Amino acid sequence: MGLKVRLVVRRWKEGWRTPRYDVFDVEADPDESVLDLVERVSLKLDPMLTFEHACHHGVCGACGMVVNGVERLTCVTKVGEAARNGVILLEPLHGFKVISDLVVDKSRMFSKYPDDTRTLERVAAQVEKLWDCVECGICYSACPVACSYPGYLGPSVLAWAFHRAAEDGKVPAAVASRPGVWSCHAAFDCSEKCPVNFQPGEKIMRLRRLLLKGSVEVV
């Protein structure tokens, strides 16, 4: 393995009054992913450690966590790049209700899509994803507004709205309201942390310009 790592994990289970931090001292390969390390800890040291994973190559968005204070997909984050003085601190994504340990409830994000749309749309009998977004929730966790204002629609929803406006020239009224584009503070943390370069911050600004110019219809 070659690298001694102290993995510090924020833990919380239903019924606990407060979270706690557990420490696991392990050996790791600098080139293995943080997710691989978490899986090994779960298999060998603590089977009660709860986390999400699926594809293991940055496509599904399930394994998003806060790694040493930075939102990342852990399946494509190497141990050697994440460790600071041999320490990796793992916490659940911010801005979401914690279900257990590193697992969060992302329904808040999906429920913000306007009622007449879906994250998955059936078009010509084919299911298409939300453009290139992997729906990992990292943009919500990184966004200072989404973490402090529960009513905010959020970066991925507003980026979706920009794409729809570019296609059909229409914007849902909720998007054009205060909880929509006008609550964005243009911090661009969402774009900086996005693992697939979806650039939600830039798309929110472009959508604002379309609204200010009257180039789209609010429906």
Topology (elements, then pairings):
Blueprint: E1 3-11, E2 20-28, H1 34-44, E3 64-67, E4 70-73, H2 79-82, E5 87-91, E6 97-100, E7 103-105, H3 107-110, E8 121-123, E9 126-128, H4 138-142, H5 155-168, E10 170-171, H6 189-193, H7 200-213, E11 217-218
Parallel strand pairs: 1-5, 10-11
Antiparallel strand pairs: 1-2, 3-4, 3-5, 6-7, 8-9
Helix pairs in contact: 5-7
What is the class of the largest domain in the CATH system? Mainly Alpha
Strand content: 15-25%
> Biggest sheet: strands side by side, in what order?
2-1-5-3-4
Q: Ends: how far apart?
A: 58 Å
User: How many domain regions?
Assistant: 2
> Given the helix and strand composition, which structural class is it?
alpha+beta
The residue ranges in which pLDDT falls below 50 over 5 or more consecutive positions are 116-129
Would you report the number of β strands?
A: 11
Any idea what the radius of gyration is? 19 Å
Tell me the series of helices and strands, N- to C-terminal.
Answer: EEHEEHEEEHEEHHEHHE
* CATH homology group of the largest domain: Alpha-helical ferredoxin
Biggest β-sheet: count, sense, barrel? 5 strands, mixed
Helix content: 25-40%
> Overall mean pLDDT score?
91
Instruction: Count the DSSP helices.
Output: 7
What is the third-level CATH name, the topology of the largest domain? Fumarate Reductase Iron-sulfur Protein, Chain B, domain 2
What is the approximate shape?
A: elongated
Question: Quaternary status of these chains?
Answer: single chain
Q: Please name the CATH architecture of the largest domain.
A: Orthogonal Bundle
